[in-house]
Amino acid sequence: MLDKRDGYAIVTLNRPDEMNALSRELRSDFVAAFDACSADESIRVVILTGNGRAFCAGFDLKELAGSTESDASEEADNEIARAMERFSGPIIGAINGHAITGGFEMALACDVLLASENARFADTHARVGILPGWGLSQKLPRLIGVSRAKEISFTGAPVCAQQAYEWGLVNHVIAEDELLPRAIAMAETMCACVPQVLTQYKQLIDEGSSKALDEALVWEEQQAIASAKQATAALIGERRGSVMARGRSEKK
User: Fold this and answer.
1) How far is 35 from 45, CA to CA, in rounded Å?
2) How confident is the model over 154-182, as a mean pLDDT?
3) Taking Cα atoms as reference points, which of 59, 110, 60, 53 lies closest to residue 81?
4) DSSP secondary-structure letter at 110?
5) What's in the keyword line of the UniProt record (predicted)?
6) Cα–Cα distance, 232 to 226 (Å, whole number)
7) Is 143 left (phi over 0), alpha (psi -120 to 50) or beta?
8) In the chain, what are the domain boundaries?
9) Cβ(171)–Cβ(182) under 8 Å?
């Protein structure tokens, strides 16, 4: 479900009776919603949340049970992760309940995570006999440390919101009825930033985090110089336009 507002959009997983499990239809709708946000220049921030008591319980296991080998190949495709990557602005995850396996991976694809007091995170890939393919095995250790990530992934045990906060997995733990308003307030604050700098800053952090520190510092400096040149060129263009407009006005 897509709700576009002034500068931001709310994407809501809307299968509450099935804990927002990722059926083929929901995955298709999700990709379409994010692509719509990517195509709309007025949308600078996306809030991702779930309807009901779960954020997302991962893949729809009932549907998977009836899958063919061809279906399994399609379901292993990381179309959801790619759709989220195509959106250049910040993504705020408002994690309202259980975020399990595929749902956990979707949460990790967000830039900032806000969790309700009812939020629970679990990685059950090892229990169901598949490996993650949307980045969990690489992102989680970098976020909370290798040992803690292994504990989560090798046991499948749930991590409560407060523990997730203490481990650095989520930014804030918030009362359930305040979760979405808090996410909206954060989105509005982000929308007050200079639009192109907001997207450039996200890219700067994301790409720099994959580099060695000395390399990342050089790369940051290069990007800062390029950004300053662009800003100066834009300012000069505005001044020239203002002078020309004033000249035409005086001639009249």
Assistant:
1) 13
2) 97
3) 110
4) S
5) Lyase
6) 10
7) alpha
8) 2-191, 194-250
9) no
Give the pair of three-digit tokens for residue 217.
């510092």
Q: Mean pLDDT check: name the lowest of 30-44, 95-109, 149-163, 205-219.
A: 205-219
Copy the structure tokens of residue 160.
């409560």
**pLDDT for the residue 74:** 53
Q: What is the CA radius of gyration of the chain?
A: 21
Burial class (CB in 10 A: 0-12, 13-18, 19+), 79: middle
> Which of 102, 85, 103 lies closest to 94 in space, CA to CA?
103
β pairing state of 8-13 and 45-50: parallel
The CATH T-level fold of domain 2-191 is 2-enoyl-CoA Hydratase; Chain A, domain 1 (3.90.226)
Encoded tokens for 57: 């319980």
Amino acid at position 51, single letter: N
The type of residue at 132 is: P
Question: In degrees, to the nearest 5, what angle opens at C-alpha 106 toward C-alphas 183 and 74?
Answer: 145
- What is the rounded distance in angstroms from the CA atom of residue 94 to the CA atom of residue 11? 10
Neighbours of 163 (CB within 10 A): 15
Given the DSSP bridges, would you call strands 2-4 and 45-50 parallel, antiparallel or unpaired?
unpaired
CA 51 to centroid of chain Cα atoms:
17
Per-residue pLDDT tens over the stretch 10-56 = 999 999 999 999 999 999 999 999 999 999 999 999 999 999 999 99
Q: Rounded CA gap, 176 and 87, in Å?
A: 27
Copy the structure tokens of residue 177. 């009825």
